[in-house]
Amino acid sequence: MTKQIQLYLAILLLLGLVSACSQDEGDPEPRKVELTPIDQYTSIDKVSGTIYIKDLPGSLGNTHASGHTPVFFDLETHQIINPYEDENTLLELPEEQQKSKAWDLGFTGVYNSLLAINKGTDSRSPGYGGQGQGAILVMDAQFDEVDEAPSEETFEAFMQVQATSGWENYPPGHKGWFFYSLESHIMRPVSGITILLRTPDGKYAKVEMTSIYLGNPEKPTINSPAPYFTFRYFLQEDGSRNLKTR
């Protein structure tokens, strides 16, 4: 083999290595999420442990005027814990259970759109008077970008301002999960935010709300059935602050 051929092959090898390194340094292809059904409304991404809730019925058959029964959700069992009168009719959760640690996330207010936490020492919480240690924080970050729960000081600083999340900037300065149009009376989710939770027993979770309308329509109307919750969440069962899902 001549020196010229050896040099040519060496250059080709070097170029191949440079090309491979350049590809490795680029952004990896997003992993395709495969969901495994758990029940009628719930699926799980077994790789990340993220739970997906789709079209979970809230307090149906009510209006702004008639009010909506608060809905209480257990992240561990991914179930609403309210009693039911029938398949489509939620009943009020007894006060003693509201003050228990049996629920992690409350859907309260008009169309169950106001997210509430279970904190026994906070009069703004449905769990007031109980033993819950819950907290909430709305972070400007994509769901999979949140790798760790914030410090207790960060949670408490946020809680000084608000203990719920609903309509964006209402009251002024409050961070919400949806925009509301006074003209169309439609709720649309705020993009690029994640709701961080400390559960009543001190565990950590992150939540991304997607829709409150049945079927998660691209263009909901005032006639779109609601409330039907579509959201995803990750609960760290071991009590650590690790919320990594990517």
TrEMBL record:
**InterPro entries, per this entry?**
HmuY (IPR025921)
Q: What is the annotated signal peptide range for this record?
A: 1-22
Origin, by domain of life? Answer: Bacteria
Name of the protein this chain belongs to: HmuY family protein
Q: Does the keyword Signal apply?
A: yes
Sorted keywords for this record are: Signal
